[in-house]
């Protein structure tokens, strides 16, 4: 293993350069990057819906809730796949709501932390309030959400690309 780590790795170099190219593309084309996120979310929604409908439901018998949930997953998946506006708004709102939900949860959990550490309590309350404000901004501005997600993806590819190049040399 040590011999392999200390040698030049052309595959890691090529992959690192590819990741950096993807990062640059993501920075230059944030809406295309966000569209790919929507396509991945649509495929996940469709897969989940079909899985529930044709794999889980037969074992449970006729369950109305599961059938409705599966059909809703399938409809949302197709809407995201074939209606760009719906996909952008749906994913943006979903991310904003997840952001708000996590921030409110952290704020609620801060009550328990207060008993153990005032420093962490203040930090959690501060971060939660920032998260709630950011969640509200994201909720009312899908374009900011799309660009933010694209930039985070670009940053991730950039970091992994640089890491792969360093490890390759």
Automatic annotation (TrEMBL):
Where does this protein have coiled-coil stretches? none
Q: Give the domain of life.
A: Bacteria
InterPro entries the record matches: Acid_resist_chaperone_HdeD (IPR052712), DUF308_memb (IPR005325)
The protein's matches in Pfam families, at most eight in alphabetical order, are given as:
DUF308 (PF03729)
Which keywords belong to this entry?
Membrane, Transmembrane, Transmembrane helix
Query: Mind telling me which GO cellular component terms the entry cites?
Result: plasma membrane
> TM spans, by residue?
7-27, 33-51, 88-109, 121-140, 146-166
PANTHER family under this entry? PROTEIN HDED (PTHR34989:SF1)
What is the name of this protein? Acid-resistance membrane protein
**Organism ancestry:** Bacteria, Bacillati, Bacillota, Bacilli, Lactobacillales
